[in-house]
Automatic annotation (TrEMBL):
<dbReference type="GO" id="GO:0050485">
    <property type="term" value="F:oxidoreductase activity, acting on X-H and Y-H to form an X-Y bond, with a disulfide as acceptor"/>
</dbReference>
<dbReference type="InterPro" id="IPR010187">
    <property type="entry name" value="Various_sel_PB"/>
</dbReference>
<keyword id="KW-0712">Selenocysteine</keyword>
<dbReference type="Pfam" id="PF07355">
    <property type="entry name" value="GRDB"/>
</dbReference>
<protein>
    <recommendedName>
        <fullName>Proline reductase</fullName>
    </recommendedName>
</protein>
<keyword id="KW-0560">Oxidoreductase</keyword>
């Protein structure tokens, strides 16, 4: 067990956690949940059937844009580092788009986003996520006027 731990630590030693001196700023929110626009962001490797699969072995840090009106039947997951059996039966267990639609139609939330985001979570070096992917997704969240983001891991 110790040998495995040493190999893993050595393999991912380049991944550093930065210490911060100040707490993050938290935006004030003056809307009710019933007026909020909600987006899903998943690291479960969810994407449209016709989109390229995630290259997990290559530590794929790309993302897929999933239109809000996508039929559930067109969604799959290609992440290989978790048991996908349940997600293959019901994608809502890792990407609850259908549940969000129900909440919106019942007036429990204001609306769902025009664009949702699928990533795969096995990215040992977070640099591309920090420098490219995160800012690109954040920019789209601003454009789409998102109030709440739900992160769904795999």
């Amino acid at each position: 067990m110790l040998l495995l731990k040493q190999r893993l630590i050595g393999k991912y030693a380049q991944t550093q956690v930065e210490e911060v001196e100040t707490a993050p700023q938290i935006a004030e929110w003056d809307k009710s949940i019933e007026a909020a626009r909600v987006v899903l962001v998943t690291t479960a490797g969810v994407h449209l059937r016709e989109q390229p699969i995630f290259q997990v072995k290559e530590h794929d840090s790309s993302y897929r844009i999933i239109p809000g009106e996508t039929p559930i039947e067109q969604l799959i997951t290609s992440h290989t580092h978790f048991d996908r059996a349940d997600a293959d039966q019901d994608i809502n267990c890792v990407f609850p788009l259908q549940r969000l639609r129900e909440l919106a139609s019942e007036g429990k939330i204001g609306s769902i986003a025009a664009h949702h985001f699928g990533l795969q979570g096995y990215v040992p070096d977070p640099t591309p996520l920090i420098e490219k992917v995160g800012p690109e997704i954040a920019e789209q969240l601003v454009v789409d006027e998102i109030d709440i983001a739900i992160l769904s891991p795999g």
